[in-house]
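Take a look at the protein record below and tell me what you see:
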Amino acid sequence: MLTKSVRVLVLVCSTRPGAVGPLVGQWLTQTIGPRAVELGVELVPVALGDLNLPFLDEEDHPSSGAYRHEHTRRWSAIVDAADGFIAVTPEYNYGMPATLKNALDYLSREWAWKPVGFVSYGHTSAGTRSVQHAKQVVTTLRLVPLGATVAIRLGDAMDNGRLRPDTARDTAGVGLLDELARVAHALRPLRERARAGTRSGPLPGSYLRRLTPDDAPEVTVLQRCCWVDEAVANDTMAIPALHESLEEVRDWLATWHATGLWLDGRLLGMVRVRRVDTDWHVGRLAVVPDLRGHGLGRWLLRAAEAAAEPDCRRILLFTGANSQRNIGLYRSEGYRPVPPAGPDGTTCLTKDTSDLVPTETPAGV
């Protein structure tokens, strides 16, 4: 499901007074802007000259992530939040401008597994030699250069300091954005695996990470897939998970500590937890229907239990009174029903934290 937006930095690389770069960058964002809206792409123009990055002045290697200077930390945050890049670059002496090389050299992890496209401009080669130079560098940083490019020969494209209208150039710009969006979505699982805070899951290649409000679309789809069976079993449609809007899901994702199990960009399962007094509440335990019976729900439940804070006395969870499959799973894990039934027809089950058995399931859900 391609439900997440893609943030693309449009890097205007030249800092020379009177440079054509800002004009080219403006043409690009205006031309591809409507298509970006269709694709769910957020275009963020960034002029490297506005960053005030001196020549690399960090003592530690960028791979350490130990940044001493505020300008480096600011640049790190901007790049880390991006999903891809378009570099608008001139050609200086058969190569890319020093400003671009310097900006690349400042960071390491932040660039990994993100696509980068190029819009070059110049005279004899239309800036293409700058792109060839840059591609040698970006691959070392695990950036993924696109095959699609836009090359502007200034002698043919300029008229009285403005870019002439050019349908072919506009088409090439939109094609570049299309390819960048496809590659950014394809690389998203690799980016997530590379981030701090992800842990291996029970299936080969799967991983856990905390869910955020940005994951609301995937969570909404998962809930509506999973709670249909609950509605049938309990003969009621009055189940919040079936009706919550995107905004309502975003709201609870911001207040609960929810964790998702992912594989190749697909949300396979989830569970949420939070503390209430001395109780550890577990809820919204869900696994995609096609993977039920493979132990993923049990694995997620144990992960949620393992995350319980040390002074919590018991774990609480709720399920439909007629949800025999769920009740059977919880009973097999040591839970016991606590009367009376909830006012919404749910059953509460509890387990003392003293009964928890240490497992290899990861804590920190």
